[in-house]
Amino acid sequence: MSSSSTKEPIRIVITGAAGQIAYSLIHQICNGDVFGKDQPVILHLLDITPMMGVLQGVVMEIEDTSLPLVKGAIPTDSEETAFKDVDVALFVGAMPRKEGMERKDLLNANVKIFKSQGTALDKFAKKSVKVLVVGNPANTNCYILAHYAPSIPRENFSCLTRLDHNRAKAQIANRLKVSPENVKNVIIWGNHSSTQFPDVRSATVNVNGKDTPVYDAIKDDNWLKNDFISTVQKRGAAVIAARKLSSAMSAAKAICDHMRDWWNGTKDNEWVSMGVISDGSYDIEKGLVFSYPIQIKDGKISIVQGLKIDDWSREMIEKTQKELVEEKNDAVKATTSD
Ligand SMILES: NC(=O)c1ccc[n+]([C@@H]2O[C@H](COP(=O)([O-])OP(=O)(O)OC[C@H]3O[C@@H](n4cnc5c(N)ncnc54)[C@H](O)[C@@H]3O)[C@@H](O)[C@H]2O)c1
Ligand SMILES: O=C(O)C[C@H](O)C(=O)O
């Protein structure tokens, strides 16, 4: 973990770099918490022109951290500069929702950003770039981004549902008064929205040294099928109601978890939740950006296959798929109307 690392720096673009999530995220990246303690980084920091003054302040703070892994921080309002030769692209820049809104209410305002940035990503980024979309509505923005970046492999695109995954783990852990790390293999299916299906049917929890199915440990199917699910589905709105701002610290942590697992691989026999471009697994429309249980080995993402889907789960999955199809159609309309 020193400036004498022999590794070549990787280039990471963060969009929305003057915003609140980026402010929590940048330090963790610069500190080596995501890409490794021996991996130097060059940050490309994109925001809109009126935010260049604020972004300059963020760059001053990056310098003042004196972290040895940082080999450069480039503030810019130019998409070409931002996406040029990047290895990793974190798409955070977009309008957040306010109290009383659903995330899809942001679609008209945000989806055009992803059309423009997808086109630039296609032109300027490395073809191996690993892409994570965070800005809401995250799945549909990722769909549009990928559509406008056709030369980048489909498996390089993802959207963030790790925050929902972490929220689900935390709810189970709190209920059982254990540490969240003891909870494994929860799944977020579908959209990062209030139709998502937080599923713990194949999750386990380590209680007193023994891995036990979550349903057996909790012993309250009614809670698991109702309050648990709606708490996770509505957690983002609850944070906004309390903070008057959307989640940022927990979102930045989830971005780090998502990218660290993509970079290093998931643990044996464990999976995480990621929105990826569907290959039709579990009868989901091919091409939709859908959150699935995911395992990663040598940088390669695969959807966990063969999990049993009962009638109730199928209904939950259909509901979130239906919303994603509607969002996709609205997004395509919004991006082709001008
Ligand atoms: N997927 C998730 O789990 C998750 C979690 C939390 C927040 N979010 C979403 O992330 C987004 C950012 O949240 P935030 O709290 O950081 O918002 P914020 O308003 O604090 O920051 C957003 C930043 O993006 C910038 N921006 C706007 N348009 C841009 C463009 N075209 N190019 C580059 N930058 C642009 C803004 O100027 C601002 O600095 C929101 O859409 C929010 O809803 C998603
Ligand atoms: O809920 C929001 O709008 C912000 C974010 O997507 C979240 O889940 O906290």
Query: Residue ranges: pLDDT <50 for 5 or more in a row?
Result: none
Shape: globular
Kindly provide the radius of gyration, computed on alpha-carbon positions and rounded to a whole number of angstroms.
Answer: 19 Å
Task: Going across the biggest sheet, name each strand in turn.
Answer: 3-2-1-4-5-6-12-13-14
Quick tags:
single chain; 338 residues; alpha/beta; Rossmann fold; L-2-Hydroxyisocaproate Dehydrogenase, Chain A, domain 2; 2 domains; nine-stranded mixed β-sheet; three-stranded antiparallel β-sheet; 14 strands; 42% helix; binds nicotinamide-adenine-dinucleotide; binds (2S)-2-hydroxybutanedioic acid; Malate dehydrogenase; L-malate dehydrogenase (NAD+) activity
Descriptive notes:
The protein has 338 residues and is an alpha/beta fold. It has two domains: 157 residues, NAD(P)-binding Rossmann-like Domain (Rossmann fold), CATH 3.40.50; 164 residues, Lactate dehydrogenase/glycoside hydrolase, family 4, C-terminal (L-2-Hydroxyisocaproate Dehydrogenase, Chain A, domain 2), CATH 3.90.110. Helices cover 42% and strands 19% of the residues. The protein contains twelve helices and 14 strands. The strands form three sheets. A nine-stranded mixed beta sheet has the order 3-2-1-4-5-6-12-13-14. Strands 7-10-11 form a three-stranded antiparallel beta sheet. Strands 8-9 form a two-stranded antiparallel ribbon. The mean pLDDT is 96. The site of nicotinamide-adenine-dinucleotide (NAD) has 28 residues, from α1.
